[in-house]
Amino acid sequence: METNQHYIDRLEKKGVKPTAVRILVFKAIAEAGSPVSLLDLETRLETVDKSTIFRSLNVFLAHHVVHDIEDGSGSLKYEACTGEETCSIDDMHTHFYCEVCHHTFCFRGIHIPVVHLPEGFEMHGINYMVKGICRECARKEAASKRIDA
Q1: Over the stretch 105-118, which tens digit does the pLDDT of each residue have?
Q2: At what angle do helices 20-31 and 50-62 cross, to 10 degrees?
Q3: Contact 40/102 with Cβ under 8 angstroms?
Q4: How far is CA 143 from the centre of its chain?
Q5: How far is Cα 114 from Cα 123, in angstroms, rounded to an integer?
Q6: pLDDT confidence of residue 120
Q7: CA–CA separation, 95 vs 119, rounded Å?
Q8: pLDDT tens digits for 86-103?
Q9: Which region holds residue 33: left if phi is over 0, alpha if psi is between -120 and 50, else beta?
Q10: Running DSSP on this structure, what letter comes out for residue 15?
Q11: Contact (CB, 8 A) for 100 and 134
């Protein structure tokens, strides 16, 4: 767990004024361990209203403090960027969405293949999502089948 000063420094380095709420929201995202939705943040930060969290997320996105992920669940997920200026290549890793428990996992060791775009096109981000059943849900499913047999 990092100190608040660490989060203040990261926000300032990206050009974001570190208000008390922004520090709380960024800390919650950074310490989550996996991508989080607006609802996840609302649940974790009971004292902060949804619109305030949403405004903070928009500021973070504009300043490359976080990046968003579309996992197919119907709500965007947010994850802290590791790059100094923008989201780094390490931020563009594979994500896995479990269709049973609806959790999104980061596979930082599995990088997204390089995509060569036609001339004149400029990439701002890439989202590589794998969908299926996570290890824990697959284990539960297999145990359930053994019991039924």
Answers
A1: 888 788 777 788 99
A2: 80
A3: no
A4: 31
A5: 11
A6: 95
A7: 28
A8: 565 556 678 899 999 988
A9: left
A10: T
A11: yes
Mind listing the pLDDT tens digit of every residue in the chain (149 residues)?
567 898 999 999 999 999 999 999 999 999 998 899 999 999 999 999 999 999 999 999 999 899 888 887 888 999 988 766 656 555 667 889 999 998 888 887 887 777 889 999 987 777 788 899 999 999 988 887 777 65
φ/ψ of residue 48, rounded to 5: -110, 130
Distance, in Å, from the CA atom of 137 to the CA atom of 129, rounded to the nearest integer, reads: 18
pTM over 0.85: no
To which H or E segment does residue 2 belong? none
SS3 of 30, please? helix
In whole angstroms, what is the distance from residue 39 CA to residue 45 CA?
A: 10
Q: Where are the alpha helices (DSSP H) in 47-115?
A: 50-62
- Report whether 96 contacts 132 (CB < 8 A): yes
Length of the chain: 149
Residue 82 corresponds to which amino acid? T
